[in-house]
Every structure is written in C-alpha cells, then in structure tokens.
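Obj.: predict assembly geometry.
Materials: sequence records (below).
Method: joint structure prediction, all chains together.
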Amino acid sequence: MIGWTTLLLLMSAATPILFAALGEAIAERSGVLNLGVEGMMITGALAGFAAAHATGSPLAGFVAGAAAGAAISLIFGVLTQYLLTNQVATGLALTMFGLGLTAMFGRPYEGVKAPSMPGGPLGVNWAIWLGLALVPVTWFVLNRTRRGLILRGVGENHDAAHALGYKVRLVRLTAIAIGGALAGIGGAYVSIATVLQWTEGMTAGAGWIALAIVVFAGWSPWGVLAGAWLFGGVAVLQLRLQAAGVAVPVQLLSMAPYLATIIVLVIISARQKYRGRGSAAPGSLGRPFHATR
Amino acid sequence: MCNGRNRLTCQKHDGDGVTTAELFRAEGLSKTYPGVRANDDVSFCVAAGEIHALLGENGAGKSTLVKTIYGLIRPDAGQMRLGGAPHAPADPHAARAAGVGMVFQHFSLFDALTVAENIALGMDAPPRRADLSRRIAQVSAAYGLPLNPARRIESLSAGERQRVEIVRCLLGNPRLLIMDEPTSVLTPQEAEILFATLRQLAAQGTAILYISHKLDEIRTHCDRATILRQGRVVSTVNPRDHSARELAAMMVGAEMRLVDRSGRQAGEVVLTVAGLTSAPASEGTSLQDVGFQVRSGEILGIGGVAGNGQEELIAALSGETTGRPGTVMLDGGDLSAQGPEPRRRAGLLAAPEDRLGHAAVPEMSLTENAILTGATRQQLQKRGVIDHRAARCFAETIIADFDVRTPGPATAAGALSGGNLQKFVIGREILQNPRALVVNQPTWGVDAGAAAAIRQALLDLAGRGAAVVVISQDLDELLELSDRFAALNNGRLSAPVATEGLTLEQIGLMLGGAHGMEVAHVAA
Amino acid sequence: MLQLEPRAATPWWLAIASPLMAVVATMVAGGALFALMGFDPVASIRTIFWDPLFGPASGYSRPQLLVKAGPLILIASGLAIGFRAGIWNIGAEGQYIIGGICGAAVALAAYPAEGAWIFPAMVLAGAAGGWAWGMIPATLRNWTGASEILVSLMLVYVAQRVAAWMAFGPMRSPEGFGMPGSRNLQHYPSAANPELAAGTGAHWGVIAAGLAVLATWFLMSRHIRGFRIRVAGMAPRAARFAGVRPETLVAFCLGLSGALAGMAGLFEVSGPGGQITDSFGSGYGFTAIIVAFLGRLHPLGILLAGLLLALTYIGGELAQLMLQLPAATVQVFQGMLLFFLLGFDTLTRYRLRWRAAK
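Observations (raw structure tokens):
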C-alpha cells in the first residue's frame, strides 16, 4: 500500500537528487559535462549545515549551500572554460577536492544536531515544494525563453553559437554556477532535512546517481523528476524491506540504489543504441571550446 | 568618393546606364597570426546591388576577411566603411545591426533545434514565436525558399539547411550579404536556383559578397571579382572579361600545371563491389545496393554532394565497417568480412577525406603517422614490436618522393599545411603499392600546386596498373581524372558511364538535379 | 588580454616541468591553507614532505613508502593505459576491493592447508576478480553504450557493500569473537605476503608494481598495440582506420586495469591489510587516478608520482600525530594537486600569448 507517508518519504529521498540532477541537466544542456556533482553536493551539505547551525535557520543553510556549491563549481568552470582542461578529469578532481575539503573542515560539526525544518503545506516541507516547482520553471526557461534558447544553442553547437556572436564561455560558466548552486541545495537538503546532522562523505554517491539520472531523463526536466522519484522509490522500498526484516543482509539491500542506477542507465543506453534513436545528448557535450580563427 | 592610395572605382553600371553607389569599402585591412599574414593591406569596395566575388585559393585570406567584416575578427590595422559610416563591429551582433548578414561555409546551424529556433538565434531581437513563423513564411514565399519552421535541422538536406541560413540572414534585412562558398554543397541545378535568388536580391539593392574558388560560376554570375593571393589583393576585375584560365593564373600566381593522362591501359577487373548496403544509422546516409567494378589501370570517379553516403562508402571499402559476403572483392578474393588491416595486406588501401583525425593523427609525428597504415605492408613491426628506424625511413621516403615541405619526420602532422599533409597521406598509401586505392576528396582544402601533384600521382598509380577510385565533390577534378563516372545520391550509386563527352549539366542530373528546390518567384 | 594558442608539439622539458610546477603550487596553496587554519605552514609542509624520509622518525616511516606506493603504482599503471585511449575507468577502487575478496576467498577456502600453490592461486584469483569487476562496465558499454564512467563508479559502492557483507557474513572469522572481519592472512604462512627484505617495506605487490611499470612501458612505447591505444585516445576515427575495433579496446583497457587493481587488492589483503574488513577499500583506487595524471600517463612518471603520493599519505599521518592536522589534509592535498596538474597541463598544449584586446 502506498500511503501518504510513503509518498512523503519517497519525495524526501528524491529531493536531493532532483536538485542536483536539474542543475546538472542545465550545465549539460550548455555543453558542459561536470562530473563534480558529488563534490559540489557534499560542499553544499557541509556549508548548509554549518550555516543552519550557526543561525538556527534552515533557510540560511540552503542559501549557504547554494552559494558554496556555486563557488566551488567555479573552480571547475574556470579550469575547463578558460584553461581548456579535460572535463572528465576536472570533474573528478572537483569531487575529490570537495570530499577532502569537507572532511577537513567538517570535523567540528560531527555529532551536532541540525535545527529542525519547519513543516509546509500538507506536511511537506517547503524545500520539497521548491524542488517540484523548479521542474516546470527549468522547462519553461530552457524551452520558452531567449536565454534558454541561447543556452541550448551553445550546448548544441558551440562553433555555430560563437560564429553568431554568442559568448560561449560566459554562457557555460553561468550554467556551471547554476548547476553548482542547485547541487549545493541538494547537498544541504541531505544534511539539514534528511539526516539532520553532518557526517563525512554523507552524500554517499548521490551526485553520481544524479549524473546517471540526467542521462535517464534524456536531458529534460520532467525526465529528471521521473528519474529522481524512481530513485526515491527504490530507496524507500529498500528501507521498508529492511524494516520488515527480510532475510537479506542489510549490506546487500543497501546496494539497491546503485544497482538500480546501473540498470536504468543500461536500459536507457540500450534503447538509444538499438531503437536507432540517436542520443538526446547535446551536440557539444564534453567538448572543449576554443575559438579558432 | 573613392580616394586614398588605392583608387578604386566602385560604380556598378546597369544596362540602362544607371549607376549605383558604393556600399562597403575596406581600406588597408591587415591581420597577422603567428607565422601567417592572413590579410595584408587589403582594400576593395562593393557597390549596392552588385554580386561581388571574392576569389582565392585555400589559405588566401578570404575567410579572415569576411569574418572581419562580420565582426568575428578585429583587424590589426585598417578601416572599413558601410553605407558611408565607419564600420568597426565589436561582435556579430553589431555587424548584423549595421546590416551585414553572413551565410557560413560550414553551416552555423544547430542540429537538434527547429528551423524557427535556429532563425531566432540568428536574430538579435526576434519577434514572438507566432510572428516569427509568419515572417519566415513570408520571406520563404517571396524568395522561393520553402521552409517548415517546425522541422528540426537534423532532418533537412544540405540544400534545405542552406535555405535556413539564407532566410535567417534575409529576416535581418541585410544591406550586405556575405556568402562563404555556398555552392560547394549544391548540385549544379541547385546552384542555378541559388543564383536566381541572389539576382533577385541584388536587383532590390542588396550587395552580395560571394566567396568561391569555382571560376566558371563566378564568370557567369558575378559583376566584379576581387582576387586574393597570400593575404593580398591581386586585382579587382570584371570576371566576364577574363577566361577561367586567366583568373586561375591570377589566383595561383602561376600557370596551372595540366595533368598528363597518357599511358594508361585498362586491364582485368581488380575491385568488385556488389550489393553494398549499410545498416541504417541514426546519423549519416546509409548506402543502398551500391555496386561497381574497377579495372587495373582505370580511375573511377564518384561524384556527389557531401553527405550523400561518401563517408559510408569509404568506410565500407577501407574495412572500418564490414559487410555481407560477396560485397567487396579484390582480385576475386572476398574481403567483405575483413577489417582494415587484412584488407591492406590483400592490397586494398584507402585515404579518407579528413586529414586531421581520420587519415592522420595531428598530435603524432610523421614517423608515427607512417606506422598508422604502413605497419603491416611496409613491415614496420615484427610480432607486434615496432621498428622505429624502419618507420622513420618510410616517412622520409614519403617526404622525399612527394615533396612534403616539413623540417623532418619528427614534425607533428598537425603542424603541416593542408596541402603538405595531404601529399603525405596520399603518398603514404601510394608508396605501399596498392592493388586498389580508394580516396575521398583528395584535394579538398589543398592549394593548387599540391592538388596538381596529387592528381598526377593518382594518374601515375593507375598507369602502373592499380585500380583507383576517386570520390570527390569537385566535378572538374573528376572530369579531369576519371575514365568512368558515377554519381552518389542519397546513398545510391548511378551506373558508371564513360567520362568522355559528359557535360556538367548531365552530371548535375545524375546527382539528383535540383532536389525539389523551386525557382524564385519574381517578386511583385 | 591573455590568450591560449594551440601548440603543434609539446617541448620535452615542459612535459617534465608542468607536473613539478603543480607540486610546488600545491605546496604553496596547501601552506596558505594551513596558515589560515592556524598552523605553521613551513612546519606543516616539512612534516608532510620531508620528515617521513629524513626526519627523526624516518626509520619507521621510510619502509611505509613502498608499502603505500606499491598498490598506487600497480593500479595507476593500468588506469593510465585506459586514460590514454579515452576510456575512463574510475572504479578501480571497486576492482581493488573485489580482487582482495576473491584472493582472500582462495586462502580462506584452503585454510588451514599449507602449500606453495596457495599464494600464486590467490594472485590469480585476485587478478581474475578485478578483471571480472572491470569487465562489467566494459561489457555494458559494448552492448548498450552505457557510460563506463558511471557504471564503474557505481560498482565501487556496490563493492564496498560486498566487502561489508563479507566481513559480517560469509567471511567472518570463526575465531574473531563475533567481531566483523575475516581471519588475518598474515598469520597463515602459505597465504601471507610478507615483507621480503627487512626494513624496506617491499612485498610481492611492490615487485608486481615494478614489473607492471616495465611491462606498460614496453606496451605503450614499443608495441603496436600500445601505439594503437595512443591513436585511439588522440583520434578515435584514425584508430578505426588503422584497424582498431573500439569494442576490443574497451574490453582490453577495462579488463587490464581491473586485473591490476584486483592484484593490488590481493597483495594488500594478504600483506599490510591482513584481512577483509567492512572498510577494506582505503581509497587507493581513487588516489591512483591522481597518480596516473601526475605521472602524465607515462610509466616512469607514474613510478615517481606513486612515490610522491605515498609520501603524502605517510606525511599526512605524521602531521596528524605531531601537529594535530586533520586526517583529511591528505585528501585536500590530493584534490588540489589534481587541479593544479590539470591547470599547468594547459601550458603543455597551449602557448600563453599576450595580445592587445582582440
């Protein structure tokens, strides 16, 4: 039986991924493959927790999480857009750096409790509402506004966008920062609203799952929502099975989200490969842009 | 009006003796890149209502010049004037606002976006969606350029894509329209239709700056031609007053060397291709039942507009894609299921079109690029262990025999000019003494001297008894080289016919004619 | 305005200088970070980079250098080959864990028998385990086109949970008083991977790392297969044209790097680690990615880079002990090092030029 509480749990489990994946979808639509989502999330988780703890306000925590995520994403942005470094390697570096940095500065916060999240309409906290609202907003901005059109153009063919006079690097830097801010909010949600405390490496691969969900979603915001809820469902199912005392070791049950991610990725990739449908990936995704003569 | 060092007359004389005034003028434009003077003191002017050709070889500086006018490049020195006012656009937005439109050689289109979205991206203040669609429909109708605003670019043919680019420019009401090699993707019939559109625009007062290296179309359609060589203006002439030969001499700076076709004898059948059909791919054109035979000592020319299956055909012949049994046979042996290496061992060699990244690795030295395809036939490896000395030797032989201008075999391939690298690539395959050689666009983007050398080398190879297949978009080249000609259109190959006596018009029809394009309606 | 201009070829000295500059920049930035946190920057840097080798306690820490460098070099040697080809195995950590488990499984199954066959069989099992774990992303990519980056990374999390399950379940030592963790293989002579010469820290894994460096050097610079791997990384279409099947290449690179990572795991579990625990993975698989880049994907460079990063591990522990620097210092250092490396690497591909605004 899927009751209201289960749905609530599902939405709550999906929310960090939803934020992070929406942000990554925006970055990838501009042609940037940022593998540093995990690093940006964990940075947001710590910054958000620290700010919420210091001010007693979860709202301040989310703002700080967004700011920290955006700030750290700009390291990636400058390296890949201005120094033309490899996006895969730089994204990995961002993840490693974020995990290290937060492990170092997070020590004083271990064992501290977060201020409680105020409830919202229908018992759903406003961060979940915000995440849900962002889906149509992102869709609208990407598909119905001039800025969204330029962003998609840059991601689809950066040479053409440059030839028409658009500032490819600036557009991408902006998209990277938005992606960083949303990943930071996602991370902050984990520490402030789900776990309610800070532990090292607490995002536990959520950033990587968000990356997979962007592929699953075919780079569309509505697809991201579906992917995040699917992931939330798997997470809740796993918890329910654990609580019901199913005769499977807890360690094996906890593999479920990762295995589900692989399975989803495989199904989507296979569909693109064998249905003859080309991938919906932006044409310039992951390619460095260097204005030639 | 025209004063200064370069006194140029800028009047276009119409039949009825009406003169129209200068619209655009460049004075002393210079642009230097490390090692290259792309533009050197370039001055010329374009009158309103004229079709003005910019003629020059690859690397003569045409692209740099028009990108300067379009605001993509800032000149190191010199000024421009447009309609009497100084023209110094900071970026393409400013150039468009001043009335300059540009149709790019490599389309600046976005494949996954719709026609309407592409057009909106080319405008600085696009109207709302519904209004935009209506205006696209208006312009399409006025100039005979039918377009469906909702279609995605990836589903359009090359000719239709160009239409999108042109409509995008026209919606900005340009005073000066720049077209960079627009007919390289069109059949002769489609090119005629394009010129009808351009005539109509010129008649309404738009100045057209037309870049090309196709001498005949410039002589037929352009009012004046400015000829560039090595970044400098050689001369501005009325192209109708000069023969193609004279124009070529001005462009190249020397008499063109003619190739020697003598001394060849067609022998036994070497290469047989039959029923070659490639799996439908999400991108590109799939081959449909392609078949032909090439004899020893014979050159088969395969013409067609790019994107009609050329890439797929050379991949199927080089072994990058394999096929059903009996589709690719060399000297009676079936190579259909074999990859590139076994095919090379058997004597079927290939040289793909793209030098940088396909036929050669730009970051690697010429020695390493010699290993790329020569490893087996030239014994540059023994049981997998590379013999670097033998490889260097082979690279040096290619460099010497094919006059590749480079400091030495340790130079990175990417550091060579297009012509020199192409000589290296073709030389690498020819020196391996192939039974059959397939080349795609052997002289694309290559200067005239290197092109002539490459064409002669292909003829000589056939003279020694090899079977040669030349795939090219350059119809003049195919007429010059090939004994028989076949056209590749939408993945299908026409039956090969003898080249002798073929006219460009017949070839154009073989290439699919006008592909359903309409002749411009005469504007009311 | 400062502009980048592509170079046709990288000068040899710059190829060596760029990682060195990155190391120096990391030390400077790291020192600044320490100063911000209220530590003496000079003392901190000296404790991390100098004292383990020449300081008062170096008698203990020096052998640790090879102990830590061995697995890093072994794993990075394999990863570098894939990175050269543009195949991104970032799941070496998972292959390391599975290799360790498979090798340990052989030992635990054979226990308490003694025999000369046991250790070689464990090495084979470790390599096979890592290979199989690496072949999962390879096979999925070849069959369905799924990104090997995401799949190999997801499999790290799966492998970590397999290790935890093993430590709590099937492999739990019957003599462990209910504590999680397998038998300690160091106490099982036929399965142990001991220090080969006292005071050096060298065990079989270090020998294997040395061999791996030699073998990958031969492959990449002398063998036609290595040549084609390099071509594939620089120009995939040229590689196809030369006769490389992309599917074979993906399987070769992921399988080989998986096997080497699996062997590293086995040498660790039978040697310095001793047992499978719920936290068996120790991050070597991720650090090895940095080692591969710092060594500019060249076997000799990887050898030196492995030693340097091993030094940061030991130095980090020492600094934690002596100066109470946080344990995560090393991780921050490694992350910064990778950033600086990538940044300075730009200099090898592009020339910096000062131009008046365009």
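Conclusions so far: Chain B touches chain A through 31 residues (CB under 8 Å).
To do: check interface contacts against the pulldown list.
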